[in-house]
Amino acid sequence: MEIKPIAPSFAASPQIRPADVARAVQAGYKTIVCNRPDGEADDQPRAVEIAEACREAGVEFRYLPVQPGRLTPELMASLDDVLRTCKGPILAYCRTGNRSASLWSLTRAKMLSPDAILSATAKAGYDLAGLRPMMEEAFGTDVYNTRPEQYDVLIVGGGAGGVAAAASLLKRRPRTKVAIIEPRQEHYYQPGWTLVGAGVFSPAHTRRPMTDVLPGGVKWIRGAVATFQPEKNEVILEDGARYGYEVLLLSPGLKLDWDAVTGLRDTLGKNGVTSNYRYDLAPYTWEMVQSVSAGKALFTQPPMPIKCAGAPQKAMYLSADHWRRTRRLKAIDIEFCLAGDVLFGVPDYVPALMDYVEKYGATLSYKHNLVAVDGPGKTAIFEVTGPDGETSRVEREFEMMHVCPPQTGLDFITSSPLANDAGWIDVDQTTLQHKSYPNIFGLGDGASTPNAKTAAAVRKQAPVAAVNALRVLDGKDLVARYDGYGSCPLTVAKGKIVLAEFGYGGKLMPSFPEWLIDGTKPSRRAWFLKERMLPPIYWQGMFRGREYLAGPDMTFQKIAAE
């Protein structure tokens, strides 16, 4: 917990946990205010948990959730009431503390000058200069007609897509003015979490500080986007700061919707329920794999689209392989429950996968969609669709369950003018250009392209987005195209991988000759690639503009020349 005093009676803080309440009390705080809506992050404690900790500690609790970018007069009035009636000093928290500091600043703007407020918040570590016009208006002076800071290319998202696109941009044009908007301080190599869940990688192997990842020449704007104003070529952050752009690249990722399954969030990381889709839970997967000696082991997969469609079954194969090696496999009943009606979307790879399904004695239950979990009762409830289309519910008891959550577009994307009806960034699948705004591009898991959502896809998309973004800056036609390439290294056993590589329409797109790696068959060479080669390609290749086997297809340029 990092408490940042702003005034003698008020402080802001990033997200706190129930255990932090006692520390806040020891520091002298009498009231705690939650400004963060529930469900914004996978590992976020719910407000009721903090409220219960406050009750036990004997301090007041108030819930004033601030939706990103929506600092309404009603919220200001509510905080003003808290400041007037609740015991102080008061500690308010949200994701980073920005929203709490911003709400306090606007609430106090009628009685304090903007200079005084901005000085106090700056000393606490919050740069709220973007709120000055609103403070000026509230204080009764003229609103500053300020122009937002401008960038040639503004990138939303510091994940694989955003960082790789920035590196590709600066490789081609080093003097381009580029900034990345990203609230997190750390970057995660998510493809490695499957191997963390199998005891092959340590969690630390998949995490690095954001400052170590960003290419030289990129400005890091540490904040979260609230909304977009594409007609003005502006992005507005949660704290009210505005940034302008000539070209906007969007790579925000997607939302893991744990709350879409009743009871799931409350039991994650305990009662045998785990998921390799979270950094903090992947080690628990390995813990459970080692401890389970008999009973039912469930593995689930929700409706598409999801990030890395092979990951749910990878967890099954690696777990089963460990149980086989430790002579426990016969005592464990493995069942893979998937909402779809095929094991893998590209038929060429299914025979090799089925060999391992049979080898491990696993049961495949199609049209089984996880809808609820009773963690303490170790029971999962599935909605099953029959041949006639009718649905029913069935229960499965388990000793261990690995869950892949339903996945959707992020809230700030789905509520924006940049999303399609399904909630994804609405782009052309070939050029990655937005269908309504020519100076906006989208890539990665949050884009509407109908490819597999994998890091390998991002590795191919980033150079295409970079080249086409520079073409827009120059007022020229687009020349680079994305062919839908994606890759899924299906870890069927420790030391063996079926290297699935394919593009739009399920077209096979192998990167290596068949004599070296035949992707339709399990191989140790593919495992070596996954374990030893892909991490450095990710960290030292993609993020430094080295486009190994990923140079953009310039077919458009060839056609134009002809």
Describe the structure.
- The longest helix has 19 residues, at 455-473.
- Helix content is 30%, strand content 22%.
- The protein is an alpha/beta fold and 562 residues long.
- Strands 6, 7, 10, 11, 12, 13 and 24 form a 7-stranded mixed β-sheet that branches. It has a 5-stranded mixed β-sheet with strand order 1-2-5-3-4, with helices on both faces. Strands 15-22-16-17-18 form a 5-stranded parallel β-sheet, covered by helices on one side.
- Helix 1 runs parallel beside helix 2 (47-57) and helix 3 (73-85) crosses helix 4.
- Mean pLDDT is 92; it is low at 141-145 and 558-562.
- The chain contains 17 helices and 26 strands.
- It has 3 domains: 4-139, Protein-Tyrosine Phosphatase, Chain A (Alpha-Beta Complex); 150-254 and 409-561, 3-Layer(bba) Sandwich (FAD/NAD(P)-binding domain); 258-407, FAD/NAD(P)-binding domain (3-Layer(bba) Sandwich), CATH 3.50.50.60.
- Strand 3 (31-34), helix 2 and strand 4 (60-63) form a beta-alpha-beta unit.
